[in-house]
Amino acid sequence: MAKKDAPPRWDRRMQQRLARGEAAALGELYDRFASLVQGLAHRVLGDERAADGVTREVFAHVWEHPDSYDPRQGPLRSWVAALTHRLAVQRLRATESAALALGGSGSTEELEDKVRHASVAARADYIVQSMPTPLRAALELAYFQRRDYRQTAADLGVTEDEARRRLRLGLQLLSTAHDAAAPGAPPGRYGGAA
């Protein structure tokens, strides 16, 4: 049980350290979450330089506004991911809107469709990265290596029922990526999909 308490305690301590202005805390946070932030931003924007810019914005925001994170609302990782998503979507909308204003092809509806698709893809990536290792391993075997549930069970050294359970649960988690990005979907803990 102590293991479950560790991440929220770390999250609260990290927020307190950031609020005190400890530069080492920002470095530690960056080391822990930079690849998540960069990956989500790149998934939404499809551009490495733009994703770098969003990454800088996210960590600048965390440094300047450490009290905007509320540990009671969920893990720091989720808050950072939601912040990344929000800033990346804002940048995508601004970039695409500017292109439309300059006479680019497309429409506002196509822009919103592009934002929705990027949101679903980024959320799915985040879900896969965040899911427990046994579920992720089962999905990787079944979908990337084309194993059926029997082969997955054998490769993982679990029963066929356990392999089916892991695959079912992993797919259920992934299905929430689409649900959260659908128009009118209720927002998540830190603001939802788009």
Automatic annotation (TrEMBL):
Sequence intervals crossing the membrane: none
Keywords associated with the record: Sigma factor, Transcription, Transcription regulation
Residue stretches making up the RNA polymerase sigma factor 70 region 4 type domain: 127-173
Annotated RNA polymerase sigma-70 region domain residues: 29-95
Family under the similarity heading: Belongs to the sigma-70 factor family. ECF subfamily.
Protein name as it appears in the record: Sigma-70 family RNA polymerase sigma factor
Upper classification of the organism: Bacteria, Bacillati, Actinomycetota, Actinomycetes, Kitasatosporales
